[in-house]
Amino acid sequence: MRVVIQENYDNMSKWAARYIASRINAHKEDRPFVLGLATGSSPIGVYEELVKMNKAGEVSFANVVTFNMDEYVGLPREHDQSYWYFMHYYLFDHLTDMKPENINILNGMAEDLDAECAKFEEKMASYGGVDLFLGGIGVDGHIAFNEPYTSLSSRTGVRNLTTDTRIVNSRFFGNDPEAVPAQALSVGVATVTESKEVLILINGHNKAKALAKTVQGGVSAKWTCSALQNHNGAIIACDEPACGELTVDAYKYFLDIEKKERL
Fold it and tell me: How far apart are CA 214 and CA 228, in angstroms?
């Protein structure tokens, strides 16, 4: 596992965006580059940077196929809090060469939610799997909507959201936790960890415990983020405020080993 520590959120976002662009640009296979994407506040800076790079001709999305991590159940895509809306607002609508047919987002309005999830997994597999999955984690360490105690071998499926998650996300729903959907469709922990690379963004003081559990805690379903310890292609991009609960030795080690990556 790599842990790339940046001074602040902006530098973390720039580093992550440049890394993603470098992987897309280095892709020489005939098949498309398959990119997993996340929503939430953490990746917004990355998306803004990727848009700038795309418009400047530094990276092309013409041969990129995307799969999003999750979507709320019961929200039409036109709803301003749906993840379909989020992704188009922050990324897809601003890219010069993203093909709409290459965008894959779970349909939370599907009549058969289990069939929708199975189809999503099958489509990812049809491309040969995900090359790079970009994600973030919650304060309790959850990846996508894989809440604590979700199986580390889980696949894409329906997830019940915890009260804590609904409270945290209520800031987008008029501060009313009851307005937050109680369920979501989400890729599984294994769906993420079976990708060739995983790039996880962790920023802010409130994520310090989650970062420590991700990097130096035991592997446990209580902290689904800890599954990344078993992934040979896992990268954590974080900012200084998120490092508050790392041991001094771990903090110094990652700074030393990644010193050339510091912006």
Answer: 7
